[in-house]
Please model this.
Amino acid sequence: MCIAEVRGDDNLTVSAPEPVGDPATLLHRLVEYADEQVFVGFDFPIGIPASYATSIGVVSFPEFLRNLGGGAFSRFFDVAENAAEITTNRPFYPKKSNCGAKRQHLVDGLKATEYTELLRRCELKTENRGDACSLFWTLGGQQVGRAAIIGWRDVLRPALLDLSMDIALWPFDGDLHVLLNRHQVVVAETYPAEAAVHIGIGVPGRGWSKRSQPDRAKKSAAIHQFVERAGITLSQELQAQLLEGFGASEDGEDPFDATVGLFSMLAVVRGLRPAGTPPPGTVRNVEGWILGQEIRPLPTILLAV
Model:
């Protein structure tokens, strides 16, 4: 995770990325550290596809999240080991990589007609990227299902049920500026591939890769241009890490993603980019949205008889 501190003179200081630690205590630790207010961005889906929500009768994602882990959803977080175990009450799949898993198994098990029904609108292909993975898929380098399980089960759900925690989920609970003025903790969803575009360093996979240390290092100059425009101060350690592309380690992409994701959040906070709050309806109430991603109107369908 990467942390920015806002001081009394409105100066933003960003520290070098550090390990998250125990997810179960993360939000409480951040509140204690901040002593006032925390705005957190998570790189995992926060929301469920509209078609899936309809199939289980859900009209509010936060309420759905509070009720997970009991009753009909007591095994919701248990990843299905084979296609026969996939149900709307146990949607994550597959548990192992050697079980012959296919995405069609998810489509069939969750009673969808096609795979894109298992995507939220914010996960569909844009001019900057292709379709994201369904949050229920747990296999491969692009999967987000296992992160969603940890994030929902160990971080968000306990916080929503903790009476001592004043927490709001964007965009479900309202417009961002309203939530930031009213709540101690505000949570939003970020996506590094989107965030890179938001801060002006280009689309990942088009001429550069987040997985390449030299490519990450080459983006240092463009990142510093954004930092200057946003009025942000970087710690010396973070400046050094940016220049060296966060090191040659195979997991160097992780601190890079955390940093870029935070800068995207700061672009919204500083008013350099709109939050992208979806209008009232299914997307806002059930599916959620990626912070800073452009809102586009649904395509018009012409029916001729």
In short: The chain has two domains: 4-43+190-269, 50-150.
